[in-house]
Amino acid sequence: MTYVEHQHIKEWLGQHEGEILGVQHSGILDEYLNSLPWTSSGIRWGKISHIKLEIPQSPDATFIRECLETPMGSHSHALIMYNGSEKSILCRAEDAFRDIDLLYLRAPGPRYFCGVDVTGDSITVCAKDFAEYDIAGLTFRASDG
Q1: Phi, psi of 2 (to 5 degrees)
Q2: pLDDT digits (tens, 9 = 90+) for 36-47
Q3: pTM here?
Q4: CA-to-CA distance for 94 and 20, rounded, in angstroms?
Q5: Which residues 6+ apart lie within 8 Å of 61 measured at CB?
Q6: Any idea what the Cα angle at residue 132 is, between residues 59 and 127, rounded to 5°?
Q7: Which residues contact 53 (CB under 8 A, 6 or more apart)?
Q8: pLDDT reported for residue 109
């Protein structure tokens, strides 16, 4: 069973404006992430400008605003990737920030998601505007300049 086939994901998708995307979209983010410096447990954040946010038990308007102020938050949508060889989820960025714990339930270890621009039927994955989810919270790549 892939992550997007879990019952809680199916239920979540039924309640939100989201859809399952093909593996090719996950591959775009995966390829970009593989070009970055890594440690044995995840991205080597010491080499990348970043912003860390703790996820509150009940994400509130302040948390959502802080997420939206990141480069990833400048995009209307988010791609929720479980790994580069599985389908991913496309959803509104605000929904992703609010429900990130649920979206990554049963997906252990650091997980990565990024901004997406949607124009009509066109989906543009903006891999460099990504974040890492882990038990400590969210770490967003910050602007280069």
Answers
A1: -85, 165
A2: 999 988 899 998
A3: 0.94
A4: 17
A5: none
A6: 115
A7: 63, 66, 67, 137, 138, 139, 140
A8: 85
